[in-house]
Specification:
Length: 80
């Protein structure tokens, strides 16, 4: 029997795979096949623990970008 993963680990690998796909040349061709292509190598590249930490880092970075964009849009609305 292979390695068992908890939900948080599976979610983390999926988030990393999606992040990689969205930041690739294939971002205009997102489907299950391309997503699987980006997901498959992650098990060999990242340990379960690293994947969880890395996925959390990616989410934090995205949240920071979203906050900056919202603040910028808010400032632009005030100036208009």
């Amino acid at each position: 029997m292979g390695n068992l993963y908890n939900f948080k680990q599976v979610e983390s690998f999926a988030l990393i795979g999606l992040h990689n796909l969205l930041n690739s040349a294939n971002k205009d061709n997102i489907n299950l096949t391309t997503f699987k292509m980006f997901l498959e190598p992650l098990e060999k590249l990242h340990s379960k623990e690293y994947a969880v930490n890395y996925a959390n880092t990616l989410l934090e970075e995205e949240n920071k970008k979203d906050k900056k964009l919202k603040e910028k849009n808010k400032n632009n609305d005030i100036q208009e």
